[in-house]
Structures are given as structure tokens and as C-alpha cells.
Amino acid sequence: MIMSEKNKIIDLLNLKEQIFIKVNRESIIQHVFSDEGKLSSFSKSEFKNFKELIGTSLGEYFPIELQSYITEVVFKTFHSHTIASLTFNQILHTELPFSIKMQAMPLENSQVGIWLSVYKEDYISTPFYEKIPVMLLYLNQEEEVIWANKQFYRKSKFDADQLVTEHVREFLKINLKISQRDALKIKDSSIRTEYKLICADKSELIVIVSAVNQYDEEENFLCTSVVVRDVTQMKLTQIELEYQKLAIDESAIVAATDAKGNIIYANDKFCEITKYSREEVLGQNHRILKSKHHSDAFFTNMWKIISSGKVWQGEICNINKDGNIYWVYTTIIPYMDEKNRPYRYQAIRFEITKRKELETEIVHYTKGLERLVKDRTQELHQKTELLEESYAKSIEQNEKLHSKNRYIQKSINYAKRIQDSILPSEDILPIYLQKHFILFKPKDIVSGDFYWWHHNKESGCTIISAIDCTGHGVPGAFMSMIGSTLLDETVKTKNISNPAHILKEMQEQIADILQQNITNNRDGMDMNIIVLNQKKRKIYFAGAKNPVFLIQNGKEYWVKGDRMSIGGKQLFSREFTTHEFDWIEGTQIYLFSDGYQDQFGGHNGQKFMRKNLKELISKNRHLSMVKQKEVLAETLEKWQGNYNQIDDILVMGFEL
């Protein structure tokens, strides 16, 4: 048997199907065995050829793209003293004449034993999986990528050399905002989990992931197959639908029932008109609102229509908790399952009680006309016209109110988009501060709290600020846009980087813009500013009422801001104070508004308090910034309970 120098191992496997090789930790071959015994089991010519393997590297007899995997398996086995396995699939690695299974185990005398065997069960059908419209990954037992289809590379923008051997959790991040089970951990095909797919260009996709382990006929682990579905567009559509639902909730009476008519959802407008609280009405059958105005045949016909999957529209007279009747114009939409059976009914109603009362009065006067003498006919006719005119005005006013409500809602949403476009994007901050978090929770759609930062390449300074404007909602949002614009002008245009000077400039500009020297306007903002000067290795802080919490080398510094705000009634002769700290790696800095500490909650409905916020941050400072944000958010949610949020909430943390 004549063998090429490069293919000696492959040729040996082709002959014997299984061989055992001893290598040292550098993958240098020490001994070669067949499945029957030592080298003596080979013929003389074979013995000569394979004896020449001793002293050479095992990896050089395999395709070049597989050599690093072989070296890595030997290295891990030698240092961790555990058994490791690896399968080279012939379909994926076309230079191989057949699939090869490699098992490594630690031996005495600083050696590693390698079993190489011909593997006849191919578990990847590449041509088939390249055509399917979903993204597909194969992982080894360490959750490292060993193969991905073209759809995945196209969507994720990764190159093959970037992805193979990459740990899957480096680019698939589970959505922690949703209570869900981890599909990559459970490996059950019935589990679907939402993740963020971090693409090669750092863009993100929202994906649904399912995973399942694959085994051969002997129950040996082959790989974990992971199906990844892009649902980004679907999530955006879902958000749009939620905005539409919010608009409907503001003006309409909305409720939903299960197939039996039991109420499973009711909006605030529903509770307002029925006089039932949400706790009272959920789980109750919709019959609790049934008045005696309609016949059984009326409801039988209605149920016949909606149970067949058709939409029903009409006027219904209901009765509220106080025993008073009210009229609604109702649209009932059935939701059908895969067997074309209704499983949910969505009802959207608009109150028409006033209109029905007017209609009743019109009917009353109309019937009276028939009983009155002819000389009263004209008089009654005039009254009827007055009533009709009143009714028309009522409808017109109602339509105007609905139109104004829609306009106001659209205006607020538009203001939100304007505010988001003016404020800096959080995506840019990791370029300058990789370890950071921002917990930002507006009370309303738009916010009076906002965060701001800027990096000056020439000076090497990164300037970060947390600002709490007067009020919240739309008034606060107007102040936040003024504040953001003035910060841009002060720092970017006027190139002021001293935090105390920035605050002083802001104070003068706010007073000038709002004409506070000649009017009673007292609006303004409390804020704190951190300047990170990497060139000078210094940290500078100044605050207008708001403090900073800084932790260096295990020591905590709670530095108060000066007792004056930006804007309002102030003593402009006073100057703000700049505090200086050395730049030390690992320093943790926290900025915040008063929203978190002032939130009511707990058993007694008390404020959370600044002292407890400081202790909470201090207790969890050893955690990563991402984990600290989770702890702060979970603590706030648990503390707040059923209490309403009273103010905008902003907490920022970062680590040098």
C-alpha cells in the first residue's frame, strides 16, 4: 500500500476504521495502535509508513481548517483531565473522504490518548438545510458554533471564520425583560424563547429560538441544532398595534371575553361606565350587564352571528352596578382558532345614552303630535326641530371631542419622537464607556428627566449629565428640550468643559430664555455633571442640588451638589463648586434624579428614600453594570406594587 505523506492518517483509517494514537500536549505523535494491537498488527510496508508518523504533529494530516480544532481538544484534555470528543463531518469538510469521530482522554506520563474512527452517521444534510427560510446553527457540547446555514450568515452579516467556534451566547442574548424559559439551556423543541441577535455590524435583530439535542442510533451526542427565526418586523408591528390599542382605550369602552362570555379584559373606560372595579368584573360573565330591554331572541341572534366567526354591530342597552341603564353602540369581533372555533370575543363600544334619550324624547313628542289638536301641530313640530337640532349639536360636539382627543394623542406621540431624536442615543455611549447602564422610566409618554453626554476628541473629555426638569409629561418635555439644546450650545459650541462653569452658563441662559428677571416664571432644572478627563487622568463633578455617588478602591463618596437649581429664584452671585477625583481604573460613578428615591410604595405607602437607594447601590456594586440595572429595576417594581408612578425616574451608572 503506497500512501501520500499528507494522507497517512486518513489512509490508515480507511484500512483499519479505528486507530489509537498517543500524543503529548503539543499534539506530537508518540505511538500508533490499530484496533487489534500495536504496530505489529500492520504489514511490514504499513509498519514502515506508520512508524514514520511518530514525532510528527497529528494536525498536519488533516485539512488546514481542522488543525486548530484538534490542537484545542488536545490542549483542553491535557489541562482539564476530562474526556472530550469532536466529529469532523465529511459533508461540511469536503476534503475528507468520510466522516471522522475523535475522542480524547488524559493518560499518564503527560500524554493524551486519541481514538480516531470512521463515523458513518452523517447528521447534517447541508443541501437541504441551506434552502430552508429560517436561520440554523449546530453547536457542540460547549455551546460553540460548528456550522451555520447561509440564511444565518446573510441575516447576521458574520463571515464563516468569525462564527465557527464562537460561543453562541456571545451573539444571542436572552430578553430579560420577558419572563421566559431559556431554550438554549433547556433544549426542548417545544420551548420558544425571545433573544436579541447581535449581528457582526452591532445591529440587533429580535429572534425566536428553539433548540434540541441530536443523538445517533447509539444515543451518543452529535450536536445541538438551533432554529432561529427573525421576528423583528413582527415585533415592530406589535408595538404599532399597541399604540393603536392605546388610542382606542382613551376614547372607547373596550372589553374582551372568553368563548363562554366570561370577562378577561376591561379598560378604564369600561370600569368608569359600569361602576365596577377591574377586580370585581374580571372572571364574571358579561350577563351581569344585561338589562331587560332586549328579548332572548336578540341575544340568540347575536351569539349565532359571532360564534360563526362574523362581526356583529348594533346598539345594546346595559345596566351598571348602581342599577342605572346606559346605551352603547357595540362592535363585537370574534377570534377563531385553527379549528375555526371562537376562543375570544373583543367588544368595542361607544356610549350613546344621550343620543338614545334624545331619540326617546323625539319619539315621545312625535306620538304626542297624533293626539294633539291641529292648532298645536305647528308648535309641537317646532319643538321637535329644536330637539333634533340639539341632538345634532350633541353628536357634533361628541365628534369634535373625539377628534381633539386623537389630535392631542398624536401630538404627544409626535413630541415623544422629537424628544427621542434630540436626546443622545444610548447606543453611542459604549464607545467611550463600555461598562454602564441607564435606568430610564418616564412617568408619561414624554419625560422631564433626560440624560446627556458628549465626547470631545481633542481634549479627551467625556461629559455626562443627569437632568431633572420642572414637572413631567409635556411641560417637563419642553423644559428637557430647552435643557438639551443649551447643553449642546454650552459644551459643543462654546467648548466649556469645567462642570461648575457649565452649570453657571446654563443658569444664566435659562434665566434669559424664560425671562425670569422680569416675569414670575420659576421653571428650571436640577442636574449633576461628571467630566472624565482621560488625558489628565482626572474626574470632575459639579451639581445643582443633585449629588453624585462615587466608589473608588472600596471607599464610598457621597458628594452633594450646591444648594441651588438651574433657573427659578436664585442668587446669581453664587458660584457652583467643582469637586476633583483621581482617575482610578474600576471607579464606579452613579448619577440620578429624585424620581427613584421619591417613589411611594412598600407596606406603608412611604417614599423609597435616598438612604435606601445609596445602600442598594453599595450592596450590589460587585455586580456587573447590566446586573446592577436589573436589581434596581426589580427592586423598584417590587417596592412600587400597585402604587402609581409619581415622577420620571432616571438612574445612570458607569465604571472606568
TrEMBL record:
PROSITE patterns: PAC, PAS
Domain PAC residues, every copy: 191-243, 312-364
Keywords linked to the UniProt accession: Hydrolase
One Pfam family in the UniProt entry: SpoIIE
Top-level taxon of origin: Bacteria
GO molecular function: phosphatase activity
Ranges for domain PAS: 254-296
CDD domains: PAS (cd00130)
Record carries keyword Coiled coil: no
NCBIfam families: sensory_box (TIGR00229)
Name of the protein in its database record: PAS domain S-box
